[in-house]
Amino acid sequence: MSLKLTAEMSAAIRQRDGLHLMLEDGETHLQYVLVPLEVYQRVTSVLADESLSVVETYAAQSAVAGAAGWDDPEMDVYDNYDAYRPTS
Questions:
Q1: Which residue in 38, 40, 51, 79 has its CB near the most CB atoms, within 10 A?
Q2: Is 33 helix (H, G, I), strand (E, B) or coil?
Q3: Domain regions of the chain by residue span
Q4: Residues 6 or more apart whose Cβ sits within 8 Å of residue 84
Q5: For residues 44 and 21, what is the distance between their CA atoms, to the nearest angstrom?
Q6: Distances, alpha carbon 77 to alpha carbons 7, 32, 38, 46, 88, in Å
Q7: Which residue has the higher pLDDT, 10 or 19?
Q8: H or E stretch including 42?
Q9: Is the dihedral of CA 28, 4, 39, 14 positive or negative?
Q10: Which of 17, 15, 19 is nearest to 34 (CA)?
């Protein structure tokens, strides 16, 4: 099923240069995100790719965390967080 946008929604999308638009159902108060079909298709293709493994992202995650300062020796305290937690 394909619904037509209201004039208000079309204007809001144009104001946001075609980016996502937050919508709320007035009855259920559920929130939705309206995105261009091209964006939706790209996201769903990535999510549906069963050959993608989170392990493949570890190197990138490590590089980003290191650049953010997580490689600093002072951050080692977080490796043993429970050892520093109060016991009471």
A1: 40
A2: strand
A3: 7-84
A4: 77
A5: 18
A6: 55, 40, 44, 36, 20
A7: 10
A8: helix 37-48
A9: negative
A10: 19
Query: CA-based angle 69:70:76, to the nearest 5?
Result: 130
Q: What is the mean pLDDT of residues 62-77?
A: 86
Buried b (16+ CB within 10 A) or exposed e, 44-79: eeeeeeeeeeeeeeeeeeeeeeeeeeeeeeeeeeee
> Is the predicted pLDDT of residue 30 greater than 90, yes or no?
yes
Q: At which residue do the structure tokens 């159902």 appear?
A: 25
The mean per-residue pLDDT over the stretch 37-60 comes to 85
What is the average pLDDT value for the chain, to the nearest integer? 86
Residues contacting 87, CB < 8 A, separation 6+: none
Amino acid at 45: S
Predicted TM-score (pTM) of this structure = 0.47
